[in-house]
Design goal:
This protein is mainly alpha-helical. The protein is built from 10 helices and 3 strands. The chain is elongated, with a radius of gyration of 18 Å.
Amino acid sequence: MTLLVYHNRSSIIRALITMLAGVFLLAGCNATTKLERKTANIEIQEAVGFTITEEVYISEDVRLRYYEALNYLGDGQLERGIAILEKVAAVAPLVTAPRIDLGMAYHRQGDMDAAARNLLQALDLNSNHPVAHNELGIVYRKTGRFVEAKRHYEAAIAVYPGYHHARRNLAILCDLYLGDYDCALDQYQAYMTTVAADEEVSMWITDLRNRRGNQAK
């Protein structure tokens, strides 16, 4: 049997889900089955987001351990969740999900080096993974690597232009860290086409326009 991994990001994502790499529908196989990566595809669904599907052979035990790790992370037990995820990633090295979850968990734990390392490993497996690009952008922004952060946000948006989290992150980066007001305004406005009810960003746009006007005088 195979393991089907689905990463989905809808236009409205609750806080807990943003900590995880995705929503997974899993089917196990015999524990002796050799791990083998079969497919990794992305499907853009403009109305609801995107779905990334990965198909690999994996054991039932690994599937259960993966869910156990996610439960620990969801409960805020980062050390226990990370410890299990490291074991899952070691025995399922061809799947991006554990690496992305590890990247997010290490980020929450404050270990930015480990977060970046795992997200880069996920991108080695799937260079077009928008979630990995966005999360790596956040890590790089927090560690002062602004140009690289911008590159990864842009890579996420290139895969899925409706990825409003990446647009918001890129807008903030351009606005507050790069001083690129044109970039910031473009990204804020693009973000608002998807999340029109975000009053906070609406106020940021007004403030940015005022700052641009003052800068031009």
